[in-house]
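Lab meeting, action items carried over

1. Structure of the two-component assembly. Owner: GW. Status: complete.
Input record:
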Amino acid sequence: RKEVEQDPGPFNVPEGATVAFNCTYSNSASQSFFWYRQDCRKEPKLLMSVYSSGNEDGRFTAQLNRASQYISLLIRDSKLSDSATYLCVVNKGGNDMRFGAGTRLTVKP
Amino acid sequence: GEEVAQTPKHLVRGEGQKAKLYCAPIKGHSYVFWYQQVLKNEFKFLISFQNENVFDETGMPKERFSAKCLPNSPCSLEIQATKLEDSAVYFCASSQGTKTYNEQFFGPGTRLTVL
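Predicted assembly:
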């Protein structure tokens, strides 16, 4: 079993749609969680951290469920510019980070 | 520098040849990470360093891959006797490493093509 698992997609949604991605992780001792965004073979960049209480940044909402060991990302009112690959990242401790394979999103006009 | 720098941008090697990739972390960052991303988006951790010391090498295919981070030099990832399946983009990242978590900042990657 992979340490971090994501549905690879692709998710194809119209502009304005709401889309949600899930990610599961295997190590129950994992300490922190993140979503990174990667555009078209460029380097990944941090989108947002994920906290137990859930956190929101504009149209993006991230949730963590430690009991079920999954993380989610919700994007509301999708824009064309949201088209990218979203990488779920789990910090096992210290700086020991593990990346999921990514979920590809395409937002269409 | 202010950004993670990786060289070269592209590297083409024939099967069996050696490939060497370089990474200069952001100044002041003490952790360096190498990742391999193949065509299907699989993002694989290879190795990490804390300054010049190996921190975690659980992802390294030890037979042909080696890496170093020496003082006052760019970090390097070397592949001896490349194989077709080594074709991938190799990303380097760095972080400050002073807290439980520090954001990893990625370089633009080196695209290795093995023919």
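2. GW to write a short summary for the group page. Key points so far: The first strand of chain A starts at residue 4 and ends at 6. Chain A has no helices and eleven strands.
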